[in-house]
Each structure stands twice: as C-alpha cells, then as structure tokens.
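Re: that chain you flagged

S.,

Sorry for the slow reply, it's been a week of failed gels. I finally had a moment to sit down with the sequence you sent. For the record, here it is as I used it:
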Amino acid sequence: MAQHATAAIETEGLIKDYGSIRALDGLNLRVEPGEIFGFLGPNGAGKSTTIRLLLDFIRPTAGHARILGQDCQHHPEQVRAQTGYLPGDLRLYDNLRGREHVALLAGLRGRRPDAAYLRRLTEALDLDLERQAGALSKGNRQKLGVLLALMARPPVLILDEPTSGLDPIVQHTVWRLLREEAERGVTVFFSSHVISEVEHTCSRVGILRAGKLVAVEPVAALLGRALHRLEVTFAAPPPPSAFALPGVRELRREHATVWLETAGGIDATLKAVAGFPVVDLRTEQPSLEDVLLTYYRQEAAV
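Prediction finished late last night. Pasting the structure tokens below so you have them in one place:
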C-alpha cells in the first residue's frame, strides 16, 4: 500500500500500564488514509486500550498517538471532531428515541448531518428512529450505534466490534457501507472477532498479543496461514497414502469418508481430492481464534 505523507492513524512507542500490569507494550503502528485496517487479537490483548488511547479517554504511560497528524493527547477535541466512534460497550439513553440520539450527537459536533445520507443509512440498516433506545433489541441498538458513528461522514472511523449482535444479512450491509466509505478515502480502523468480517473488508491487519504488535500484514497472508478442514466422501475409499502431501494431515477416515486438515491454502489438497470420484465435499471455515492460534504457533516455531 502506498504511504501518504500524513498517516490517518499513527502510534509511536505507545505504552499503557495499569499498576504492575502492562496492557500495551510499545505499540508502533501506521494506518494509511482510505485503508480498512483490522485490529486483531484475543480478549485482553490490548485492542480496546489502544482505541481508548486514540480517543484520549485514557492517557498513555509513554509514547504518542496521532490521528491525521493531530496529537491525540494534546488536541483531543480536534481528533474527536474528525472521528466517528463505535464503542464495544455501546451505551444509549434508554428514554431517548433514535432521532433524538442523532440530534444530540449532531449538537455536540456542532453541525447537522446530511439529510439524504442519514436517510440512506436508516433505510440500509432498516432502523426505526422513532423508537426509544430502551425498547430496541441488541441488534437494533448496535445498528443505531453504527448509524451514529457514520452519520457525520468523518474522515476516520474507529469501530470496536462493529457487527457484534447483528444477523448475517445486516453484517453484510455494514461491510458494504464501510467499503463505500473507504472508497471515498475514509479510513476504517476496527477490532473484530469475526473472520468473515476481516476477509470481506480489510486490506491489512495488525495482530496484537499480550499488548505487543506481533505482525502487520495483508489479510490474504493471514488467511493463508490458517488451518482448513475438509470432509470428503468418495465413491470408493482412496488409498491410505493418497493425501500424504506437505502441510496436509489426514485426521481420520470412516469407510469412504476422509477428514483432512490442511495449512497454507487448500489448492493442492483439492487437486489431490479431484483424483478420485467425489460424492460429497464439505469445508469448515476456520474461526478468527483458530487463525490467530495457528499464526502464534507458526511464529513461535520460527
């Protein structure tokens, strides 16, 4: 990815301690304008801590963070004015309607959102802004949170688990909205536990573990490291050595059904499978947790 003169998001040596616990350990990260960047890692890795530091909700023990060249701690108001934020623990005013949340946030920003874009978001998310937040389901509360983050069309979006609680159809709608914003040059930075979300939206990912950034790489490279599982039923049992290939492990077989596990992509495995008459084939998509565990094991072996 081409590097711009000014990063959309940049951290240098960012450290956050809570007493004797180091939640973030020297984070150096750069996200470019117009990039959709996935911030990945298990619970407790430091993802939400990073987001809170970027928005100056908490202060770093050491290091610096900047959004569009503005220091997040020295100029927090300017930073927040250019940022749309969806927290992982979204809290709404239960007695306020959706449209009242929109008006409240618009007032805090000092400008009204574009009416046509707001209407488009409302229709795309199938959201009723006349209902009180306290009467909304978890999914509809999350949809309102997405709308509030996007409605001002800020140049940077920071989203903590943006599709949490949403059904698959709405998830795809949110991914489409985020891709459309990125095409306009908006930077999207989000944490996620959903592998399909990362696969469908991200250009690059950063992998965090125990407060340390262990890698930044294209999403295709991350997925290429994942273990894939296949269940194949053949017309007749294949020979015992049929799938003795590098990176392929036969887990078990029952009569003409074979369970395989393959690392680094499934192309070679599928070509080997195609050498025998196939009755049925099923693949299991790895979870993001599985991908990260595989990644950590491979890194530790290097």
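What I noticed first: The longest strand covers residues 21-31.

Talk soon,
D.
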